[in-house]
Amino acid sequence: MFERAILHLDFDAFFVSVEQQRNSALKGKPLIIGGTGARGVVASCSYEARAYGVYSAMPIKVALRLCPDAVVLRGDMEAYSRQSKIITEIIREEAPLFEKASIDEFYLDLTGMDRHFGCWLWSKELRQKIIRESGLPLSIGLSVNKLVSKVGAGEAKPNGAQLVEAGAEKSFLAPLSIRKLPSVGQATCKKLSFMGVRTVRALSQ
Predict the structure, then answer these.
(1) Which CATH number among 3.40.1170.60, 3.40.50.2000, 1.25.40.10, 3.40.50.300 corresponds to the domain 15-73?
(2) How many angstroms separate the CA atoms of 149 and 47, rounded?
């Protein structure tokens, strides 16, 4: 039983997934969402594009050098916002207490739910319901706090689920790269790596 139970919901490459839902011909292709001008940057990219080294916030011109066959779309924020609102209403119907952290991320406080029925079973059922009704891939993480749950959802990607039992937080985080911590930015990561600190275990020592 969790003293606290925080569920993190994180949609996989949300903008990309919405575009692929609207146009199934885009599925399985390297797809980049972002500005197409000289200073355009990647807002989101498919896992096929990521395999070439493309990542969010990368300049589009660099991304296209790495993946010249990528399809580039400017994106449609109205469509993404509409889908986000639909998802929010699904969650609102099921969860009494939740926080919308961004257009495609949510935190749910499930503390006390184990007294009635299991948090993890309920979380997996909620995930399946959202996937079924939205048609979008979703990863989840459940633990005693936001940080571990967010990292857990990241480790579950794509389209998976990760449970970190109470008391197992340190052993779960220890072998992971410091890049997996949301509080460690790219510049800080470079500095720590230069100092020989590359894992959470090394950071905690």
Answers:
(1) 3.40.1170.60
(2) 22
Is the N-terminal amide bond of 158 cis, ω within 30° of 0?
yes
Task: Give the C-alpha distances (Å, rounded to integers) separating 60 from 66, 78, 79, 107, 140.
Answer: 10, 22, 22, 31, 29
The CATH fold assigned to 6-12+77-167 is Alpha-Beta Plaits (3.30.70)
The residue type at 142: L
- Any idea where the domains of the chain sit in the sequence? 6-12+77-167, 15-73, 174-205
Please tell me the pTM assigned to this model.
0.89
Amino acid, single-letter form, for residue 186: Q
Number of Cβ within 10 Å of residue 106's Cβ equals 22
**Residue matched to tokens 């990542």:** 55
Spatial CB neighbours of 48, under 8 Å, sequence gap ≥ 6: 28, 29, 30, 31
- Establish whether 105 is a catalytic residue: yes
Which among 109, 122, 135, 120 is positioned nearest to 11, based on CA atoms?
135
Residue 117 has a pLDDT of 66
Tokens of 99: 């926080």
**Catalytic-labelled residue, pool 93, 99, 105, 169:** 105
At 194, the pLDDT band (50, 70, 90 cuts) reads confident
Smallest CA-to-CA distance from 16 within 67, 69, 78, 80 is with 80
